[in-house]
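Q: What structure does this chain adopt?
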Amino acid sequence: MGRRLVWINLVAACAFVVGGSLFALGAFLADRGAALVSVNTSYLVGGFFFSLGAYASVLLVVNATQRRPGAPPQRRDGLRWWGNRPGQRDWRGAVVLLAGTLLFAVSLVAAFAEGLTPRQSNGWIWLPDMLGCVCFLVSGHLAMLDVGDGRVVVRVHDIGWWVVAVNQLGSVLFLLAGLAAFVRPATSTEINTGLVNWGTFAGAVCFAIGGVIQAFDRPTPTRMVEQSHEHTEPA
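A:
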């Protein structure tokens, strides 16, 4: 199990590094006035890797979870592709993060549409983006509580804390960029284009750095708190 967890963690880490790098590239190209299709393509591909990293994070929690001593043996010992762990804070955080990346995907795909009115742009691009940002913040808060044993603490000697802290900073920057991206109906322009681009750039760099740090982390199996939360895994 230990080797499997290392590989899943590495997949998640690499996905966040690539996703964050592509998001940063997209923001840089946008600030430089590059072609919109190039900017949107960079964001879209980066969004795919963010979703991959989030799903790998779910897999990491599910496969790291062991039954309590004395519980019935598992049906199989293969890789579990999904699992329901509502009693675990780390599982909730990973699922919320995955939901956030899927909301981003809606926004990123809609960005390719042409001729949208300010209302349509805010409804199909800005709103899903903002909901995704909120999911990222909630996920980050749950992760902070998880590494702090139920409290938000500072643990500079804990590599896991650094991963969570850097990513949460990125989530805050994404939120600021998202707020600034609202299109004003009167002018059909964003509130602050500079903040959109550089907030996105800085937030994406945070996630890329967080991914690099995560690659050096070594996940360990954890016990389930309540056996009642176990469900049969899909084949």
